[in-house]
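Recap for those who missed Tuesday's class. We walked through two folding examples back to back. For each one, the amino acid string is listed first and its predicted C-alpha coordinates come directly after. Nothing is annotated here on purpose, so try labeling regions yourself before you check the end of the notes.
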Amino acid sequence: MNKAQIMLYCSACLLLFLGGAAVLFPYAAVPRHTLEMAKTPQPMEDLPDVDLGPDFGPVPVTELVGYYLDHPPPKNGVLKREEKFGGC
Protein backbone atom coordinates (compact mmCIF):
# COMPACT_ATOMS: atom_id res chain seq x y z
CA MET A 1 0.00 0.00 0.00
CA ASN A 2 1.23 3.43 -0.76
CA LYS A 3 0.81 6.53 1.35
CA ALA A 4 -2.23 7.85 -0.58
CA GLN A 5 -4.17 4.61 -0.04
CA ILE A 6 -3.37 4.64 3.66
CA MET A 7 -4.56 8.24 4.02
CA LEU A 8 -7.73 7.49 2.04
CA TYR A 9 -8.46 4.44 4.21
CA CYS A 10 -7.90 6.37 7.47
CA SER A 11 -10.04 9.28 6.29
CA ALA A 12 -12.86 6.95 5.21
CA CYS A 13 -12.79 5.15 8.56
CA LEU A 14 -12.84 8.43 10.45
CA LEU A 15 -15.76 9.78 8.38
CA LEU A 16 -17.68 6.52 8.80
CA PHE A 17 -17.16 6.60 12.57
CA LEU A 18 -18.17 10.26 12.93
CA GLY A 19 -21.22 9.75 10.71
CA GLY A 20 -22.34 6.75 12.76
CA ALA A 21 -21.84 8.69 15.99
CA ALA A 22 -23.88 11.62 14.65
CA VAL A 23 -26.72 9.31 13.58
CA LEU A 24 -26.80 7.35 16.86
CA PHE A 25 -26.31 10.28 19.25
CA PRO A 26 -30.02 11.16 19.67
CA TYR A 27 -30.74 7.58 20.80
CA ALA A 28 -28.03 7.73 23.50
CA ALA A 29 -28.69 11.27 24.76
CA VAL A 30 -30.70 11.97 27.93
CA PRO A 31 -33.92 13.93 27.27
CA ARG A 32 -33.91 17.58 28.36
CA HIS A 33 -36.69 17.08 30.90
CA THR A 34 -34.75 14.28 32.62
CA LEU A 35 -31.59 16.38 32.65
CA GLU A 36 -33.42 19.36 34.22
CA MET A 37 -34.98 17.11 36.87
CA ALA A 38 -31.53 15.68 37.69
CA LYS A 39 -30.09 19.17 38.16
CA THR A 40 -32.78 20.34 40.62
CA PRO A 41 -32.91 18.87 44.14
CA GLN A 42 -36.01 16.81 44.90
CA PRO A 43 -37.59 16.43 48.34
CA MET A 44 -36.99 12.95 49.72
CA GLU A 45 -40.71 12.48 50.37
CA ASP A 46 -41.34 12.63 46.60
CA LEU A 47 -38.76 9.96 45.75
CA PRO A 48 -40.06 6.44 45.04
CA ASP A 49 -39.33 3.55 47.38
CA VAL A 50 -36.01 1.77 46.90
CA ASP A 51 -36.22 -1.98 46.36
CA LEU A 52 -33.50 -3.63 48.48
CA GLY A 53 -34.08 -7.11 47.16
CA PRO A 54 -35.98 -10.15 48.41
CA ASP A 55 -34.69 -9.86 52.00
CA PHE A 56 -35.97 -6.34 52.71
CA GLY A 57 -38.32 -5.43 49.86
CA PRO A 58 -39.21 -1.82 49.04
CA VAL A 59 -38.06 0.68 51.68
CA PRO A 60 -39.01 4.40 51.79
CA VAL A 61 -36.14 6.86 51.32
CA THR A 62 -37.00 8.56 54.64
CA GLU A 63 -36.24 5.30 56.50
CA LEU A 64 -32.95 4.88 54.63
CA VAL A 65 -31.88 8.43 55.52
CA GLY A 66 -32.93 7.90 59.15
CA TYR A 67 -30.90 4.68 59.33
CA TYR A 68 -27.88 6.46 57.82
CA LEU A 69 -28.15 9.27 60.38
CA ASP A 70 -28.48 6.79 63.27
CA HIS A 71 -25.64 4.57 61.99
CA PRO A 72 -23.08 6.77 60.18
CA PRO A 73 -20.18 5.11 58.38
CA PRO A 74 -16.84 5.02 60.22
CA LYS A 75 -14.57 8.03 59.75
CA ASN A 76 -11.59 6.02 58.48
CA GLY A 77 -13.73 3.94 56.12
CA VAL A 78 -12.89 0.63 57.80
CA LEU A 79 -15.60 -1.41 59.48
CA LYS A 80 -14.64 -3.28 62.64
CA ARG A 81 -15.66 -6.91 62.52
CA GLU A 82 -16.52 -8.70 65.69
CA GLU A 83 -14.72 -12.01 65.84
CA LYS A 84 -16.70 -14.86 67.29
CA PHE A 85 -15.16 -18.01 68.62
CA GLY A 86 -16.75 -21.00 66.92
CA GLY A 87 -15.22 -23.71 69.04
CA CYS A 88 -16.74 -26.85 70.53
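Example two. Treat it independently of the first, because the proteins are unrelated.
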Amino acid sequence: MRAVVLALLMTMASPALADDVADAHRQAVSGRDSYWNCLAQEYSRDTNKGMSGPDFISLIARACPSERQNFRVMLVDFLSLQFPDVDAGAHMTTANNAIASAQKDVITAFIKHRAALK
Protein backbone atom coordinates (compact mmCIF):
# COMPACT_ATOMS: atom_id res chain seq x y z
CA MET A 1 0.00 0.00 0.00
CA ARG A 2 2.82 2.41 0.85
CA ALA A 3 4.40 1.75 -2.53
CA VAL A 4 1.12 2.64 -4.28
CA VAL A 5 0.77 5.88 -2.32
CA LEU A 6 4.40 6.77 -3.00
CA ALA A 7 3.99 6.04 -6.71
CA LEU A 8 0.84 8.19 -6.80
CA LEU A 9 2.61 11.07 -5.06
CA MET A 10 5.56 10.81 -7.44
CA THR A 11 3.22 10.86 -10.43
CA MET A 12 1.46 13.94 -9.08
CA ALA A 13 4.74 15.70 -8.29
CA SER A 14 6.31 14.97 -11.66
CA PRO A 15 4.24 17.51 -13.69
CA ALA A 16 4.87 20.14 -11.01
CA LEU A 17 8.59 19.44 -11.15
CA ALA A 18 8.52 19.61 -14.95
CA ASP A 19 6.82 23.00 -14.70
CA ASP A 20 9.49 24.17 -12.24
CA VAL A 21 12.26 23.00 -14.56
CA ALA A 22 10.64 24.69 -17.57
CA ASP A 23 10.21 27.92 -15.61
CA ALA A 24 13.82 27.79 -14.39
CA HIS A 25 14.96 27.21 -17.97
CA ARG A 26 13.01 30.25 -19.18
CA GLN A 27 14.54 32.35 -16.40
CA ALA A 28 18.06 31.12 -17.22
CA VAL A 29 17.57 31.96 -20.90
CA SER A 30 16.21 35.37 -19.96
CA GLY A 31 19.21 35.95 -17.69
CA ARG A 32 21.55 34.92 -20.48
CA ASP A 33 19.84 37.27 -22.92
CA SER A 34 20.00 40.19 -20.48
CA TYR A 35 23.69 39.59 -19.90
CA TRP A 36 24.44 39.29 -23.61
CA ASN A 37 22.45 42.46 -24.36
CA CYS A 38 24.40 44.34 -21.70
CA LEU A 39 27.71 43.09 -23.10
CA ALA A 40 26.58 44.12 -26.59
CA GLN A 41 25.86 47.63 -25.32
CA GLU A 42 29.33 47.78 -23.79
CA TYR A 43 30.84 46.53 -27.04
CA SER A 44 29.12 49.19 -29.13
CA ARG A 45 29.87 52.27 -27.01
CA ASP A 46 31.65 55.01 -28.94
CA THR A 47 34.10 55.50 -26.07
CA ASN A 48 35.48 51.99 -26.69
CA LYS A 49 36.56 52.60 -30.27
CA GLY A 50 40.01 53.87 -29.36
CA MET A 51 40.47 51.46 -26.49
CA SER A 52 43.33 48.97 -26.48
CA GLY A 53 42.63 45.23 -26.35
CA PRO A 54 43.80 44.87 -22.73
CA ASP A 55 41.74 47.89 -21.65
CA PHE A 56 38.65 46.42 -23.34
CA ILE A 57 39.28 43.06 -21.67
CA SER A 58 39.40 44.80 -18.31
CA LEU A 59 36.22 46.73 -19.10
CA ILE A 60 34.30 43.60 -20.07
CA ALA A 61 35.53 41.70 -17.00
CA ARG A 62 33.83 44.24 -14.73
CA ALA A 63 30.90 45.21 -16.99
CA CYS A 64 27.29 44.30 -16.29
CA PRO A 65 27.73 43.01 -12.72
CA SER A 66 24.03 42.69 -11.88
CA GLU A 67 23.18 41.01 -15.20
CA ARG A 68 26.14 38.66 -14.80
CA GLN A 69 25.15 37.68 -11.27
CA ASN A 70 21.50 37.24 -12.26
CA PHE A 71 22.52 34.96 -15.14
CA ARG A 72 24.79 32.96 -12.82
CA VAL A 73 22.05 32.48 -10.21
CA MET A 74 19.36 31.61 -12.77
CA LEU A 75 21.61 29.11 -14.55
CA VAL A 76 22.68 27.43 -11.31
CA ASP A 77 19.03 27.21 -10.22
CA PHE A 78 18.05 25.62 -13.52
CA LEU A 79 20.94 23.17 -13.48
CA SER A 80 20.16 22.22 -9.88
CA LEU A 81 16.59 21.35 -10.84
CA GLN A 82 17.54 19.64 -14.09
CA PHE A 83 20.41 17.65 -12.57
CA PRO A 84 19.73 17.36 -8.83
CA ASP A 85 22.27 14.57 -8.32
CA VAL A 86 25.18 16.67 -9.61
CA ASP A 87 27.30 18.53 -7.09
CA ALA A 88 26.36 22.22 -6.68
CA GLY A 89 29.98 23.18 -7.28
CA ALA A 90 29.81 21.63 -10.73
CA HIS A 91 26.75 23.75 -11.53
CA MET A 92 28.60 26.87 -10.38
CA THR A 93 31.57 25.92 -12.56
CA THR A 94 29.25 25.49 -15.55
CA ALA A 95 27.69 28.90 -14.92
CA ASN A 96 31.07 30.57 -14.54
CA ASN A 97 32.26 28.90 -17.76
CA ALA A 98 29.17 30.22 -19.59
CA ILE A 99 29.95 33.74 -18.36
CA ALA A 100 33.60 33.42 -19.37
CA SER A 101 32.55 32.18 -22.79
CA ALA A 102 30.23 35.15 -23.30
CA GLN A 103 33.00 37.54 -22.31
CA LYS A 104 35.48 35.77 -24.58
CA ASP A 105 33.08 36.03 -27.55
CA VAL A 106 32.64 39.79 -27.06
CA ILE A 107 36.38 40.33 -26.62
CA THR A 108 37.15 38.25 -29.72
CA ALA A 109 34.67 40.29 -31.76
CA PHE A 110 36.26 43.51 -30.50
CA ILE A 111 39.81 42.36 -31.32
CA LYS A 112 38.80 41.12 -34.81
CA HIS A 113 36.92 44.35 -35.52
CA ARG A 114 39.93 46.45 -34.49
CA ALA A 115 42.23 44.35 -36.67
CA ALA A 116 39.91 44.75 -39.65
CA LEU A 117 40.01 48.54 -39.28
CA LYS A 118 43.81 48.67 -39.49
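Answers for example two:
Residues 76 and 90 are 9 Å apart (CA to CA).
The two ends are 76 Å apart (CA to CA).
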